[in-house]
């Protein structure tokens, strides 16, 4: 059994040590907001936060999480930055198909937690690992700036 803290709740999951955190979240715990895109840490669709840091859950063995707190898109709205980011996403209608967007929101929220007033280059650096096939990058940048001002 592996102990996890996910979205503030203690969990115990009976899975292999090397199962990616993404599959534990989606298939074992039932939190399907985090998406599978590439499976090789290249697209960012699977981004969650460990103690506030964005990580690619598709390549993270669940046993390596340890005591770090896992936050997923289902709970990011309860954090100050996550709440502002989600509101800005709605106000500026960032989303098109939506598939990449939970990962985008997790990376954007983590950025604002560590840098409340990011420059364009800060935003580009923080978000460069999150790919959007619908090309919503301009609106994502604008929404991050709006959230920073909120
Ligand atoms: S699914 Fe994890 S980075 Fe693409
Ligand atoms: S909104 Fe469609 S992939 Fe980003």
Strand order of the biggest β-sheet: 2-1-5-3-4
- The end-to-end span amounts to 42 Å
Radius of gyration: 15 Å
| Percent helix range | 25-40%
Order of helices and strands: EEHEEEHHHH
Number of domains: 2
- What is the number of helical segments per DSSP (H or I, 4+ residues)? 5
What portion of the residues fall into strands of 2 or more residues? 5-15%
Task: Give the overall form.
Answer: globular
Can you identify the CATH class of the largest domain? Mainly Alpha
The helix-and-strand class reads: alpha+beta
- The parts where pLDDT drops under 50 for at least 5 residues are none
Task: Tell me the CATH topology of the largest domain.
Answer: DNA polymerase, domain 1
What's the average pLDDT? 98
Number of strands: 5
What can be said about the biggest beta sheet? 5 strands, mixed
What hetero molecules are in the model?
FE2/S2 (inorganic) cluster
CATH-assigned homologous superfamily of the largest domain: [2Fe-2S]-binding domain
CATH architecture of the largest domain: Orthogonal Bundle
Description:
- It is a single chain.
- The chain is α+β, with helices and mostly antiparallel strands and 150 residues long.
- The chain folds into two domains: 2-71, Beta-grasp domain (Ubiquitin-like (UB roll), Roll), CATH 3.10.20; 76-149, DNA polymerase, domain 1.
- It is 37% helix and 14% strand.
- The chain has a five-stranded mixed sheet, sandwiched between helices.
- A hairpin with a 2-residue loop joins β3 and β4.
- α2 crosses α3, α2 (80-91) packs across α5 and α3 crosses α4 (120-127).
- The longest helix is centred in the last third of the chain and has 14 residues, at 101-114.
- The protein starts with a strand and ends with a helix.
- The model has no long low-confidence stretch (mean pLDDT 98).
- Bound molecules: FE2/S2 (inorganic) cluster (2 copies).
- One FE2/S2 (inorganic) cluster (FES) binds at residues 36-39, 41-46, 56, 58.
